[in-house]
Specification:
Layout lengths: L15 H18 L14 H11 L12 H12 L7 H5 L3 E3 L7 E12 L5 E11 L3 E3 L3 H10 L2 E2 L1 H16 L3 E10 H4 L10 E8 H4 L1 H11 L1
Parallel strand pairs: 2-5
Antiparallel strand pairs: 1-4, 2-3, 3-6, 6-7
This protein binds zinc ion.
Zinc ion binds next to loops.
């Protein structure tokens, strides 16, 4: 068999015309390959969309195929929502829902608030439940505000430890209570999907302020109540 006859002939162009042809076809192939830049497909001014398209391309996908055509736009939108906590104003969330405690001194506990966050190491979701308790001093907060406060800190690139701490610090700053206790239990897809840990493993983090720091019995009461 004559293998030579199957060699492509256009590898070294012998004329300027051939070189130009080759350049055009390489250019066209590259344009096809990196497509996503067509103006009508992108929201003007959104820096994230071309990056997502570039990522799809780097993954060996064709960002121009039908199913992926709007993906950079959707990913950008989703990422902005999932990190909207960066630009949410705490005062706006609380919006005046802080009231006189009228002498109420016992623990206020909101249990098992759902949260959804993104781990800052892999930008993969972690999610679960968080319980928030505080011992009022002079002020209490509308109960529906507590899940919204959790969202403010969950909707960022996070580590669960920091999120737990930030929720405790926010309640502390808003109410100046005698103490705050927060416990979060999360399921981390970066562990489960990458096979680093057993799929069912969960992570629990806690944060305490004020009286909860020095009083073991109080901490135990909180932990028993959320069990
Ligand atoms: Zn991670």
């Amino acid at each position: 068999m004559n293998f030579d006859s199957k060699k492509p002939s256009a590898i070294s162009p012998s004329s300027a015309a051939e070189a130009a042809d080759l350049h055009r076809s390489v250019g066209a192939a590259a344009a096809l390959h990196f497509v996503p830049m067509e103006e009508d497909r992108l929201e003007p001014g959104d820096a994230m969309e071309p990056m997502v398209a570039g990522m799809l391309d780097a993954l060996g996908e064709d960002p121009a195929r039908e199913g992926l055509e709007r993906t950079p736009h959707r990913v950008s939108k989703a990422m902005r929502f999932l990190t909207s906590g960066y630009t949410t104003d705490l005062a706006e969330v609380v919006n005046g829902a802080v009231f006189d405690a009228e002498g109420y001194q016992e623990m206020v506990l909101v249990k098992e608030i759902e949260f959804y966050s993104l781990c800052e190491h892999h930008m993969l979701p972690f999610f679960g439940k968080v319980s928030v308790a505080y011992l009022p001093h002079k002020k209490i907060i509308g109960l529906s505000k507590i899940p919204r406060l959790v969202d403010v800190f969950a909707r960022r690139l996070q580590v669960q430890e920091r999120m737990t701490q930030q929720v405790a610090e926010a309640i502390d700053a808003i109410l100046a209570p005698r103490g705050v206790a927060v416990s979060a239990t999360g399921f981390h897809l970066c562990m489960a999907m990458r096979g680093v840990e057993k799929q069912a493993s969960q992570t629990t983090t806690t944060a305490f302020t004020g009286l909860f720091l020095g009083d073991k019995d109080l901490r135990r009461e909180f932990l028993v109540q959320i069990r």
